[in-house]
Amino acid sequence: MEKILSSCSEMFLTLGFKSVTMDDIAQKLAISKKTLYAHFPNKQALVRECVFYFFDYVTAEISRISENATNPIAELYDIKLCMMQKIKNEKISPQFQLKKFYPEIFNELQEKQLTFMVQQMSNSLEKGVSLGLFRANLNIPFTARLYFNGMMGIKDQHLFPANMFQHSQLMTDYLEYHVRAICTETGMELFNSFDNHTYD
Fold first, then answer.
1. pTM for the whole structure
2. In sequence order, what DSSP letters do the residues of 60-113 get, joined into one string?
3. CA 8 to CA 97: how far, in whole Å?
4. Whole-angstrom Cα distance, residue 188 to residue 192?
5. How far is the C-alpha of 92 from the C-alpha of 196, rounded, in Å?
6. Is 189 exposed, middle or buried (0-12, 13-18, 19+ CB in 10 A)?
7. Pick from 75, 90, 108, 130: most CB atoms within 10 A?
8. CA–CA separation, 84 and 19 (whole Å)
9. Do residues 159 and 140 make contact, with C-beta atoms less than 8 angstroms apart?
10. pLDDT tens digits, residue range 110-141?
């Protein structure tokens, strides 16, 4: 089962949810459609399983990064790099296709993303404040949700069409926008050292 989900997730992220058919998947996996339908009654069921399989994988990666990060600014950079490596085809925009063709799955995914990211970001912000890297007067619940909203916003093809904006650059620009808004002078010094050297 995991092999099927892993391979299908790769195809959906690379080619898009709409263009990949059950025939394509069966051919890719070298199995019959009958075998595929024995596991998944229809394409929507398969898409749902793949979406949350990938969500679990990504959140596990983010949690690992957060646990091992030396400080919250390094954590943000490492998470950004991890997300950039997960981008398969910026022009496909899997998030946009999921919202358009599978809105119920998209809404369920967004709720899970909100819960996870707000908790993860809140922990990071609290740590940054305690270390003197982030401003002591931060409204942490507001900032955590604003960060999540911005991360979702830069994926919006209507706001940031792929023919005008490269998604990896949007992630870099948004991270800088976010960090500069919350850092103390000490935090900015650390941020600039990462920006200029570690992540060239």
1. 0.89
2. HHHHHHHHH-SSHHHHHHHHHHHHHHH---TTT-HHHHHHHH-HHHHHHHHHHH
3. 15
4. 6
5. 31
6. exposed
7. 75
8. 23
9. no
10. 999 999 999 999 999 999 999 999 999 999 99
For the stretch 177-193, pLDDT in tens is: 999 999 999 999 999 98
Q: Which amino acid is at 63?
A: S
Percent of residues in the chain assigned helix, strand, coil, to nearest 5: 75, 0, 25
Domain hosting 119: range is 44-198
Domain count, the chain: 1
Which residues fall within 8 angstroms of residue 171, CB to CB, at 6 or more apart? 80, 83, 84, 154
Tokens for 156, please give them: 């919006």
Partners of 134 in beta bridges? 183
Q: CA 92 to CA 98: how far, in whole Å?
A: 11
CATH number at residue 179: 1.10.357.10
119's tokens: 């908790």
Residue 72 within a domain: yes
Which residues is 183 bridged to in the sheet?
Answer: 134
Residue 97 lies in a domain: yes
Task: Choose among 29, 27, 23: nearest CA to 6.
Answer: 29
Cα–Cα dist 16/22, whole Å = 13
Which amino acid does the sequence have at 89?
Answer: N
> What is the phi/psi pair of residue 134, to 5°?
-115, 155
Nearest to 152 by CA among 135, 136, 167, 169: 167
